[in-house]
TrEMBL record:
Protein name: NADPH-dependent FMN reductase
An example Gene Ontology CC term for this record: cytosol
Residue intervals of the NADPH-dependent FMN reductase-like domain: 5-147
MF terms (GO), sorted A to Z: FMN binding; oxidoreductase activity
InterPro entries tied to this protein: Flavoprotein-like_sf, FMN_Rdtase-like_dom, NAD(P)H-dep_reductase
Pfam families, A to Z: FMN_red
Stretches that traverse the bilayer: none
Classification via SUPFAM superfamilies: Flavoproteins (SSF52218)
Superkingdom: Bacteria
Gene3D superfamilies: 3.40.50.360
Amino acid sequence: MSTYQIAVVVGSLRRDSINHKLANALVRMGPPEFTFKFVQIGDLPLYDQDDDGNQADAVKRLKAEISASQGVIFVTPEYNRSMPGVLKNAIDHASRPYGQSAWAGKPAGVLGASIGAIGSALAQQHLRNVLAYLDMPTLGQPEVFIQVKEGFFDAAGNISNEGTAQFVKGWMDRYVSWVKAHAKV
């Protein structure tokens, strides 16, 4: 049996982030042959093409963690109808310099949560456009746009509604199959 390491990129830096909570609940649903590495993005400098030849240590670490993974899960909130700037900054860093993208070929999954009624639908669409350009085969279905209300997570950090938990578990099962079909192991 092959083992797969999956990089998990959460697009929120907020201490009590619902997307970080969602990512934690999600990775507990993964199968034993999958390990999940949460990738830190809050310490990256702002992307500046002038730095491509001398990338910061935090950028080198990010690229190494993505390169060592067989897939990537993006869990993103929605800020002003798009993905957060910190997430776009991380994507830009790991894609540079041109021709040396750590993202290329990595099977991706995208989901997210918000307190708003449409979850993070528009942020996810913008993110999917970027991932297509970066040559990341991205799972299309099922789409996961979660609206989080009081009591969504139980005291242990799991999704409290059984139907929602099963839906998210179904997404994880599809993502696992996606990675197995597309990853370079």
